[in-house]
Amino acid sequence: MLKLILRDRIKNYITINKKRLLAHLIISIFVVFAVTLFLRTYFINYYYLALNFTPSLTERVFIVDKQTDIDALKKDDIVGFTYTHDDYPFYKYGESFIKYIACMEGDDLVVANGEVRCNGKYLGSQIKQDSKGNKLPQFAFNGKVPKNKYFMWTPFVKSYDSRYWGFIDRNDILGKAIWKY
How far, in Å, CA of 152 to CA of 109, rounded? Predict the structure, then answer.
């Protein structure tokens, strides 16, 4: 009995408010379409979504600002960049990475005897092989970080970063992470 009464009330409401319901549906579809178009146009041109599936950073999702003023970057900024090496079996040339800037142009960098130091501060050590037994390249350097170069790093001991492949170029930086989760 209750089902019949409820069904009749819904049917009556729809009959009486058909035009209003149709208007709400059309407006809702238009709003969803407009918001989607705006986000695709604006977001894709100025930002990109970076995902981190490794334990090298505690955060997993980043929004990277493509309009970043590269000259304003500083140490400990998290930046997205293009990986431009092809000497490691698990990452391909051109993949996007996200790491901290550990050392930058003009800083004193020493990567020797398995240890990494920037301006005398100990950053971590290099390991000889990854968890799958692959031999890792061992970047070595002692001097000032060259112009337009960055040494990228994360505190995770098994992070594949500049400890193994060296500097990244300024032109390979995609932008600074402005939001992380």
Answer: 12
pTM of the model: 0.76
SS3 letters across the chain: CHHHHHHHHHHHHHHHCHHHHHHHHHHHHHHHHHHHHHHHHHHHHHEEEEECCCCCCCCCEEEEECCCCHHHCCCCCEEEEECCCCCCCCCCCCCEEEEEEEEECCCEEEEECCEEEECCEEEEECCCECCCCCECCCCCEEEECCCCEEEEECCCCCCCCHHHHCCEEHHHEEEEEEEEC
State how far the alpha carbon of 142 is from the alpha carbons of 47, 102, 172, in Å. 36, 15, 23
Q: What's the CA gap between 91 and 99, in Å, rounded?
A: 15
Distances (CA, A) of 65 to 60, 103, 179: 16, 21, 9
Low-confidence ranges of the chain (pLDDT < 70): 1-6, 10, 12-14, 16-17, 21, 89
The predicted structure's pLDDT at residue 117: 97
Q: Is 154 exposed, middle or buried (0-12, 13-18, 19+ CB in 10 A)?
A: buried
Cα distance between residue 59 and residue 181, in whole Å: 5
Taking residue 56's Cβ as centre, other Cβ atoms within 10 Å add up to: 19
